[in-house]
Specification:
- The structure is a single chain.
- It contains 6 helices and 12 strands.
- The termini are close together.
- It is about 30% helix and about 25% strand.
- A 9-stranded mixed β-sheet has the order 1-2-3-7-8-9-10-11-12. Strands 4-6-5 form a 3-stranded antiparallel β-sheet, with no helix packed on it.
- It is α/β, with parallel strands linked by helices.
């Protein structure tokens, strides 16, 4: 299965892929319907662990649940994933995904417990939150995909249906995805450096699908043959 991952710019609905991950808020229901008409699967990307001040529901987050800024994305701030208000907002976001016709969700920024978030979060907090997201998604008929923190991956493998890694070849960490491959769950990796001529044979040997992207994650994409 080929992946088209795009969270900025006008969605490229005719990309040569079967699975499309597109921004929850920036993608219209008509675009999701157009993908379905082509027999494609549409997944809604949403940041479940960070506060993005430009989102339409940004003001719904209580001030006490907004923490330190993310190092990699300084315009975003970590969220207190234990806060009931945060979870209620995420539940509404998943309902929006369902109402737009998406087939699943891809929640990002799920590694606050390993960062200077401004909150005393631990591994148990993160596991509880991740399982909450997967459970709520399933209750809404949405397929949940795991992002980012594969240090907890084996503890979440029963909760999530598929997984997307970022730069596992660049970080020499693709072995963390082996349990997912062994469970026959779809595994994708996004790389922003390297050549497909080198990446594709390695990905094929590991049983994962690799996609070459630009750092902004716009429409540009290169996949293995």
């Amino acid at each position: 299965m080929r992946l088209h991952y795009q969270i900025t710019g006008t969605p490229q609905l005719d990309a040569a892929a079967e699975l499309f991950v597109l921004d929850l808020f920036d993608t219209d229901a008509s675009e999701v319907a157009a993908l379905h008409a082509r027999g494609r699967v549409a997944i809604a990307y949403l940041s479940a662990g960070s506060h993005e001040p430009w989102r339409p529901d940004a003001d719904d987050f209580p001030a006490q649940a907004i923490g330190s800024r993310l190092t990699s994305y300084p315009n975003e701030s970590w969220l207190d994933i234990r806060d009931p208000a945060v979870r209620a907002i995420m539940r509404k976001r998943m309902m929006l995904a369902r109402d737009k016709g998406f087939d699943g969700i891809y929640p990002g920024s799920l590694d606050a417990y390993r960062s200077q978030s401004g909150f005393a979060l631990n591994e148990s907090d993160q596991l509880d939150y991740d399982r909450f997201l997967a459970s709520e998604a399933g209750a809404l008929g949405l397929s949940p995909g795991l992002s980012g923190d594969f240090m907890l991956g084996t503890q979440l493998i029963d909760a999530f249906d598929w997984v997307i890694a970022f730069g596992c070849f660049a970080a020499d960490s693709c072995e963390r995805l082996t349990p997912w491959v062994e469970r026959r769950k779809p595994v994708f990796d996004l790389e922003v450096a390297g050549e497909l001529s080198a990446l594709c044979p390695m990905a094929d040997a590991l049983g994962i699908s690799v996609v070459l992207k630009q750092p902004g994650f716009d429409a540009w994409s290169r996949s293995c043959p």
